From TrEMBL:
GO cellular component labels: plasma membrane
Membrane-spanning residues: 12-32, 52-69, 81-99, 105-127, 139-160, 166-188, 200-220, 232-249, 270-292, 304-323, 330-351, 363-388, 409-431, 443-468
Region (Disordered): 471-490
Topology of the protein relative to the lipid bilayer: Multi-pass membrane protein
Major localization listed first in the record, in broad terms: membrane
Name of this chain's protein: MFS transporter
CDD domains: MFS_MMR_MDR_like
GO molecular function, one term: transmembrane transporter activity
Keyword GTP-binding among record annotations: no
Cited PANTHER family: BLR6921 PROTEIN, MAJOR FACILITATOR SUPERFAMILY MULTIDRUG TRANSPORTER MFSC
UniProt-annotated location(s): Cell membrane
Amino acid sequence: MEGKPAPDRRRWWTLLAVSAAQLLVVLDGTIVNIALPSAQDALGMSDTSRQWAITAYALAFGGLLLIGGRISGALGHRRTFIAGLVGFAAASALGGAAVDAGTLFGARALQGAFAAALAPAGLSLLTTTFTGDRERGRAFGVFAAVGAAGSAVGLVAGGLLTEYASWRWCLYVNVPMALLAVLGATLVPRDRAGRGRGGLDVPGALLSTAGFAALGYAFSEAAPHGWSSVRVLSALGAGVVLLAAFTAVEIRSPHPLLPMRVLAHRARAGAFASITLLFVAMFGFYLFMSYYTQTVLGYSPVEAGLTLIVNAVAALLGSVLIAGRLHGRVAPALLIVPGLVAAAAGMLVLTRLTAHSAHVLPMYLVPSLVLTGVGLGCVLPPTAGLATAGMRGHDIGAASAAYNAAQQLGAALGTALLNTVAAGVTASYLAGRAGRTPDEAVVHGYTVALTVAAAILLAAACIAAPLTKNRPADERERQPTPDDDLIRPR
């Protein structure tokens, strides 16, 4: 039996601290993108190596998430959360002070490693702190809104800081934000560390880290080198083999890093599938919005980022006013499926664009950004809730880590896959149609890629509908797991 809920004030401090940490993690996935050209000039990075400022963070974050989830369960979610924040702040300061490319790349990898502990610990804290349907709906709504807005905020902040301060402040800004979150985390109710269930699953840890890193590397290299290159195919093959071996090890391990019972649940599988495919589509969408507004419409980086604020506001409204209020009152499918369909509709709006379209902002961009934002806001809270519903002990950390890993893999795959589709269609369009302008070819490539993204979202809706049609069973009816006695609030 769980301990008594924490006092209301302390519960909402938990939400504030976790939301601030979530903003840090998501924001750092995009804020450096805008600053990268300036950082490249300052540190003398080559065109071929500069991507590691982005890739190092993504690989460390995605590759270490399952280990971070296990550490969170073993050491206690609150303790892991605070340690992750302090480490993230230190790594950010190191990156901001970098005097060469190697230091920057190493600092970005350290940021990803600490984020891999921070993210699952934060989601686990929300799950154990907010237990009632109404308050959990509000908490997950705010948490999801911050996550949904983080990427757009990162683009805007990156543009503003780079233009008016320095690219280094895109990293330095994390330090005060992280320390404020640490201050809030000191008011979070304590939890106890896990006891007596064995050490770290070392074979599983090594296989999962190597497998996720190999897949992430393959996705990052697919855009510049193509899916048929030996480098990409080798990394993909290695990733698949390593994760297959990881699954085999976890089935047999007495203390698995990722218990298969976390995945072998119909509604949770629907949540993981939904969030993965949503991120595949949405990160391709963000990429094209950034490229289209800057290369075709001539927006500055700051103007392009500010355009995406429409999407962030819509996601905030969708997650708090719609999903947050209905969480626990309706079946998850009644939020997830319409959300996926709305996001698909938003992308289909942009497939009508041409290089000569007039009134682009009010007629195309704003409707698309609103629909995709509301869709994103409706999907994130119920999938986050389903990912950890009925979990206890180490399983909460494992489920939280798996949910974050699904987002990371979806984002990496979506960026590479849809960028490859757009580039291939653009090249074919120019080769097969004499007299066409580069802008016409580029816009055509974007619209075809967005059609693919919309199809992915509609497929996700078809998958999610039967898997998430019922409300999750009350936790009191859940069969106990071997780790139920590990985490107890003090």
